[in-house]
Amino acid sequence: MVSQITRGIKISVTTSFEGTYFKNYKLHFAFSYHITIENHSKDSVQLMSRHWEIYDSLNHKEIVDGEGVIGKKPVLKPGESHTYSSGCLLSSPFGAMKGHFNMINFTTTRNFRVIVPTFKLGAPFALN
């Protein structure tokens, strides 16, 4: 697990290898990731959007931007947390992801960015 705190918001990430399969006549490696967002600040906040940079060991980089996470824009009061799971496909058995969540602080009405630390993706059978 990797974790990082930005402005009182803690992001923790765990990953799992889900298997391989063919899509469009090409082998893909499927990974899931599980993210927990914890509000350790004194203010209520809301996650508005996300930005991901997804890398694989073949030096392919994919950028993904979107509203919320898995169709939700969770509001977190002080002491609350939100956990969700999602996934990605890589064209190699190794890779990494990093990014950030754009959030709003309800007390100050200011937008701020919460860093999602770089987390590695690796198929266990390919590890030496």
From TrEMBL:
Q: Which InterPro entries does the entry link to?
A: ApaG_domain, ApaG_sf
Q: Which GO terms describe its biological process?
A: error-free translesion synthesis
Name a Pfam family for this protein. DUF525
* SUPFAM superfamilies, per the entry: ApaG-like
Q: Which residues cross the membrane?
A: none
Gene3D superfamilies in the record: ApaG domain (2.60.40.1470)
| PROSITE patterns, sorted | APAG (PS51087)
Q: Which PANTHER family has this protein been placed in?
A: F-BOX ONLY PROTEIN 3, POLYMERASE DELTA-INTERACTING PROTEIN 2
Q: What is this protein called?
A: Co2+/Mg2+ efflux protein ApaG
Native species: Flavobacterium piscinae
